[in-house]
Amino acid sequence: MFSGASLVKTSTGRVTNKAVFQYAFMNGGKTAGLNLQRGFQGWANVPMGPPDPIFGISETFKKDSFPKKINLGVGAYRDDTGKPYVLPSVRTAEAEILKQDLDKEYLPMTGDNSFCEEATRMAYGDVYDSISNRLVAAQSVSGTGALLLSSRFFSKFYPSKDIYISNPTWGNHKNVFSNAGLNIKEYRYYNPITKGLDIEGMLSDLSQAPNSSIVLLHACAHNPTGVDPTHAQWNDILRVVRDKGHFVLLDMAYQGFASGDFARDTYATQLFASNNVPMFLCQSFAKNMGLYGERVGCFSSLTASPEEAARFESQLKILVRASYSNPPVHGARIARFILKNNDLRAQWAGEVKGMASRIISMRQALRSILENDLKSKHGWKHITDQIGMFCYTGLTPEQVATLSRDYHIYLTKNGRISIAGINTSNVRYLAEAIHTVTSN
Ligand SMILES: Cc1ncc(COP(=O)(O)O)c(C=O)c1O
């Protein structure tokens, strides 16, 4: 960030502001008698913030030199050798795009329209054609960027400022929505006894929420629990949402990871859209295309009419312009190329199925070693019942701490493990460690 190891004097012998600034940072923020600028105290009251619960784990993991260390914190796919996986379809698309010798001009504020059309068509499935003339879509800075646009739109235009999120949910939901000034409320979701969905609690909490509240739902492969509603339960959720006039925000970061099939994972999206529930949808291509660092996502809003869509879009552009002006071009080109090329798209679907299958086989292996080989007295059925990238193990914060301290196995404090971090070489070591910490 601030390179250069020493203070720099100008020809007149005065220390420049830039150099003092560098010195202050190199000195851990203590200016040791030097000021950024005479009298400047602007950051004197900035407290040290806590590390991010997920990215913080990755940093600790990197520093650990133990050969059998395992990172089960971050939700990023790894192959069976524990390496990051660049999808072959992505490699092909990238090579083809490079051959085209394209320019690096700005995209429009709402991004690559053709990418957005393909992305939303994939998420809304059969319903797409009947809603496309009142659907507003914008390419976003991955899933988080789509959530950010939602949060800003709510904060500026939506009458209610209460957003209901599942307990538990992905940690960043609270950050994004509270940063935009929304009030975070929770609905019951996970039952720690059954390690499944607390559907009665959820329906009751959503019924008791004030009318027209915002309800954030995970479209598929719920993070962190790996527990999704059944189709019948989704229908019940729809009924409450309609009765109460709630606004639905669907977060779809894992399309394809729940069932291994893109179309099957669109049940919730299609259900709400076909019933004309006012909704936003936040899509990410980080996981299913492995485009984590390219930041490819799509925000879309189902409006009441083409005329309303035009007004909505005009305001969305204003929000984008003031936030980051327009989205990055490269990742969206890759995604568009794959989505628009039938052969490559079919290949990609196979690759996603492959990732989903490897995850399922790791769930089975972990459970089997715990139950059959190690004769663990605890029930581990939930490891294979839960779906998607994560398993909410039920490990306590103390057990999690022992795993990282004594076994160099890293996971979030809530006991969530990213199954994608497990492979045939480390699954036994992991099972043995879990067995030991849960036997004491
Ligand atoms: C539930 C959920 N929503 C959204 C995201 C956003 O991810 P990204 O911004 O990398 O697309 C994630 C990533 O872990 C997630 O788990």
Automatic annotation (TrEMBL):
GO MF terms held by the record: L-aspartate:2-oxoglutarate aminotransferase activity; pyridoxal phosphate binding
The alphabetical list of record keywords is: Aminotransferase, Pyridoxal phosphate, Transferase
The reaction(s) catalysed by this protein are: L-aspartate + 2-oxoglutarate = oxaloacetate + L-glutamate
GO-annotated cellular components? mitochondrion
| Pfam family, any one | Aminotran_1_2
In the Enzyme Commission scheme, what number(s) does this protein have? 2.6.1.1
Tagged with keyword Transferase: yes
The record ties this protein, via InterPro entries, to: Aminotransferase_I/II_large (IPR004839), Asp_trans (IPR000796), NHTrfase_class1_PyrdxlP-BS (IPR004838), PyrdxlP-dep_Trfase (IPR015424), PyrdxlP-dep_Trfase_major (IPR015421), PyrdxlP-dep_Trfase_small (IPR015422)
Q: According to the lineage, what is the superkingdom?
A: Eukaryota
Q: Which GO terms describe its biological process?
A: L-aspartate catabolic process
* Domain named Aminotransferase class I/classII large: residues: 68-434
Q: Which CDD domains match?
A: AAT_like (cd00609)
| Essential cofactor(s) | pyridoxal 5'-phosphate
Q: How does it assemble?
A: Homodimer.
| Entry's family note | Belongs to the class-I pyridoxal-phosphate-dependent aminotransferase family.
Matching entries from NCBIfam families are given as: PRK09257.1
Note on file?
In eukaryotes there are cytoplasmic, mitochondrial and chloroplastic isozymes.
Protein name, please? Aspartate aminotransferase
